Every structure is written in structure tokens, then in C-alpha cells.
Amino acid sequence: MSRRPFVRRTLAAAFALLVFPACQPNKTNAESAASATLAQAPAAGAAVAPAPRGVVLPDFASLVQQQGPAVVNISTKGKRMRAGVPGMSPDDPFFEFFRRFGVPGAPGGRGGAPGEGDDESTRRPGGEGSGFIVSNDGYILTNAHVVDEAEEVTVRLTDRREFTARIVGLDKPTDVAVLKIEAKDLPVVRIGNPAKLRPGEWVLAIGSPFGFDNSATAGIVSATARGLPGGDSNYVNFIQTDVAVNPGNSGGPLFNLAGEVVGINSQIYSRSGGYMGISFAIPIDVAVSVRDQIVAKGRVSRGKIGVSIQQVDATLAESFGLDRPRGALVGGVEEDGPANKAGLRQGDIILSADGRAIERSEELPTIIGAIRPSTEVTLEVWRDRAKRSFKVRVAELGPPASTVADTGKPEQMSSADRLGLVVRDVSPEERSRGGSRDPSQDQRGARAPLPEGVIVVRAQGAARDAGVQRGDFVLNVNGRPVKTVKEFREAVERGGKAVALLVQRGNSQIFIPVRGE
Q: Which of the given ranges, 258-262, 274-278, 411-415, has the highest pLDDT on average?
């Protein structure tokens, strides 16, 4: 084979390496020539400046050598399931044909693992993940989704010893599970403080991607306190990194440069199912709290104050007279809940809880959820353009309201206002008739009561652009309840250029900020 293509590729690669550091923006030709001259002939005896300390890479090798033995591989087997073609009996004359000729999923076929199960008409789904040892007597942390619904869990150490693990407990809202193996004098990780992490800081992951045990990957912290788009969990503010995390890494530790675990690698954000540069880790303090509760009492209890919340954007902040977007806007208050009893109401903006400032709304459930039920907590609230404090006694979170009627003939209708809204009153007939039928009420589908507010007949201009729709109920404007068109007009006129509308659509209530024209 000719070596010429190889030589060309080598030269091209070398050229690229040489060119890359020299790509400096906004340099004139004269400056470039001067730089080249200096580079070619440094003055005799001139001292060479030492390399900046920032370019020295961390000693990942020592970290992996010291902490790697405490990281484990986890394999699981689920409940035995019938294999083969769905709905086909093993007695069917074609069953053996499909088995022999490799129908995916058929027993003994190309889709099944060799030697899997004693009864070849059944199979056992399996999975793999990672974990790490947190006590020398065998307690292990991993992800709940790694071991959920598993009948058998096997833990393999880096020295190839294998142990059958017992699932002590798991907590799906945080995706944390606690395992126990019967062993002594095991290597353990050190627990760090994720609150000290800063974006740009180096971190290292160790796990078993695709079954490759004790694989290390490194990257930086991209962001902290990150909520996931469309995420199910309200109790975790994730650490976002660019560390390569792939299937099998789930449940493995994320280390800082001090060799301390700061997170549990949990999820990736991907369009392909594989790593695409964005991964998420559960802060280790969340996982430790879950572990302590599971080990002590077999379950996790969480606090609640009985409010529904939403994010505060720039327009909402302006409409409520807040200096900048921050806090959690209360969109609803649970009747007879802790917040209701303490005096909180719709339109309040919770700025801090238990002395901890709230920048984004998703931070509030994490703070309240971590507080022991029956504890009294102080909330700093923004109401009527001033700060107020409320004492709320946290309740324990248990397991989780009216249908909007179709618009009918208006009793009174407004003309389009500066927001681009046309609204009308609810007629007495409509109110007595109630809303749409709600099958969840009883078997006959009782009608739900209509909310107190005005009905949107038409949304145009700024209101339409903000997301207001025909058939929405507007319940209040800038925190002021509106039950009639007259009250709605007055509230809009008193509001500033930007107003916050509390809107009910279906069973949901949400504040919609509208900047008037």
C-alpha cells in the first residue's frame, strides 16, 4: 500500500496543530509580521516566560487511581417474560421455526442472550448501570431507574468480585436508589459539597458506559441548579456538565478535583439517544438526604406548603413592580393548605424560603421538599410592591380543578382594549348551568362550577402574542380580582404598560404577562 496518503494526512494534521494557536482575532498584517519575526528569532539570553498556570491540566490519573476502586458495575435482571413472537404459543407449529431461525426476541434466536434462563420459552430483561460505595459495610448509591423493577441485582467490584445486592429502597422523584451488599472493609468515596461548584470547574465521571467497567471521562461544569426541559422531577436542581455520559454511566459518581463526589450522573440531553455534549448529575447532598431517610425509616418524606408556582420573566417582574426577574410567582393556593393558613395568596412572589434566596421558581420545591414536615419556615414575599414575611408550617407531601364552559351570549362585552382583549361577563344562566361535564366528579359526569372572572371573546395584538386564547377566563389583573367587565377595564387602566393576567384554561391557572401597545 502506498504511504503517500498517510504522509499527506500527517502533514495536514501537523499543519492544523501549528495554525490553530496562531488564530488571533483582529490582528493587522503588520502585527502578524512582527509576531512572526519575534517567534523566529528570540533575543539571545532572553528569559522564556513560564506557561500560565491555567493551562496545566489536572492530575486525572491519580484521581481515577484513588477513587476508581469505590465505583461499581451494576447489572440487573427483571421478571421472567414469555419470549418469541408476541401472542404465539410454544405449542404453535411455527414457534420452533421462529426460534431456530433467529426471530429477534425469540428464545435462542439472535435477539436473545445465550444461556438466558432455564425455560427457553421465557426470557428475563436485563440492564446495566453504575454505582459507588458510600460505607465500608456495603451501602451503595445509584439511580432509581437502574434498579427499578429488578428482581436480581448484581454488583461487581473493580477486583472482579461479585455480590448479590439487596435494594434497600428507591426514590423515583429524585431518581436515587440505595443498595446493600454483604461485605466488609470496602473502599468508599468521599462526599463533597455541590454548592461550591462553579461553572467552568473541572469534573470527572467514572462508570460503566456500554458495560466498559471503570471508564473515566472528564469535562467541566456547564451550569448549576438546572431544571430539565419537560422534566418530571420538581425536587432536583441538576448539575449540568459536558462530561461524556452514555448508557451504563447512570448511577455513577461525578467527582470534583479534590476527589470528592459532588453528584450522581443521571441523564443526558440527546436527539440521538447517545452523548451530545450535555449531561446532568443529581447533587450529592440530595442523594445523601434520600439515603439517610431510606436507611433510617424505609421511605422519604417531603415538605409542602400547598402552592402552585411559575417562573417570573421580565414582563411579569415589571408588572408586579419587582426590580428584576426572580422568585417564584404563586399561581394557586391550596385550600386549607399551609400557605393558605399563613395568609399567602395568588400573585405573591416568594423571594426566599428558610433564608435561601430564590432566583428561579424550580428552586422552591427543592428547598421546601428538603424541610422536615411540621417545621416552621419563614417566606419572604413580594406583594403590592413591597416585601412581607410569612411564617408557614410545612406539611408532609402526600399523593396530588373546574372545566371551562363554552362561550355563550354575552350579557356585557368590552371593546378591544390596549392589550388587544375583548372580554365579556358570565351570564346568570351560564353560571347556574355550570361548566362542561367533568367525568371525574361522578359516574353521571357532574358539571364543574365556573370560575369567578370574565371570559375572553377575542384575543388579538399583544394579548394574542402573549398566549391568551378565546375561551380563557381572566380571574385577576396584577393581583386584583376581576368578576365583571367593568372591574377588568378599571384594573387594566390602573396597571402599567405591562400587566399580569391570571388566566384559567381547563383545570389549570397561570399568570400571562402582557405588554400593552
A: 258-262
Q: Which CATH architecture has domain 69-111+118-180?
A: Beta Barrel (2.40)
Q: How confident is the model at residue 398 (pLDDT cuts 50, 70, 90)?
A: low
- Contact status, residue 447 vs residue 435, Cβ threshold 8 Å: yes
Structure-derived torsion over alpha carbons of residues 377, 475, 418, 491, reported in degrees to the nearest 10: -70
- Residue 155 grid cell: 454488583
DSSP conformation letters of 55-117? GSPP-HHHHHHHHGGGEEEEEEE---EE-SSTT--TTSTTHHHHHHTT-TTSTTSTTS-TT--
Residue 375 has pLDDT above 80, yes or no: yes
Domain 303-396, classified CATH 2.30.29.30, yes or no: no
How far CA 262 is from CA of 77, 257, 337, in Å, comes to 29, 10, 35
Distance CA 509, CA 309 (A): 10
Given a contact cutoff of 8 angstroms between Cβ atoms, the answer to whether 76 and 150 are in contact is yes
* Rounded Cα distance, 457 and 375, in Å: 46
Dihedral pair phi/psi, residue 467, rounded to 5° = 115, 5
Task: Check if the beta carbon of residue 220 is closer than 8 Å to that of residue 201.
Answer: yes
DSSP conformation letters of 176-212: EEEEE-S-SS---PEE--GGG--TT-EEEEEE-GGG-
What are the sequence ranges of the domains in the chain? 69-111+118-180, 190-297, 303-396, 421-515
Q: How confident is the model at residue 96 (pLDDT cuts 50, 70, 90)?
A: very low
Q: Which fold has domain 421-515?
A: Pdz3 Domain (2.30.42)
CA atoms of 138 and 486, how far apart (whole Å): 69
What does residue 406 show for φ and ψ, rounded to 5 degrees?
Answer: -70, 150
pLDDT band at 154 (very low <50, low <70, confident <90, very high): very high
Long-range contacts of residues 287-292, Cβ cutoff 8 Å, at least 24 apart:
287/141, 287/174, 287/176, 288/134, 288/191, 289/370, 290/171, 290/174, 290/176, 290/178, 291/134, 291/139, 291/141, 291/176, 291/178
Contact 375, 448 (CB under 8 A): no
Task: Tell me the pLDDT band of 236, cut-offs 50, 70 and 90.
Answer: confident
What are 58's three cell numbers? 489536572
Q: How far apart are the first and last CA of the chain?
A: 73
Tell me which residue has cell 395568596.
Answer: 345
Taking the CA atoms of residue 309, residue 311, residue 314 and residue 316 in that order, the dihedral angle to the nearest 10 degrees is: -20
Rounded Cα gap, residues 200 and 219, in angstroms? 9
Known catalytic residues?
Answer: 145, 175, 250
Q: Residue with C-alpha cell 447532598?
A: 285
Average pLDDT of 292-307? 88
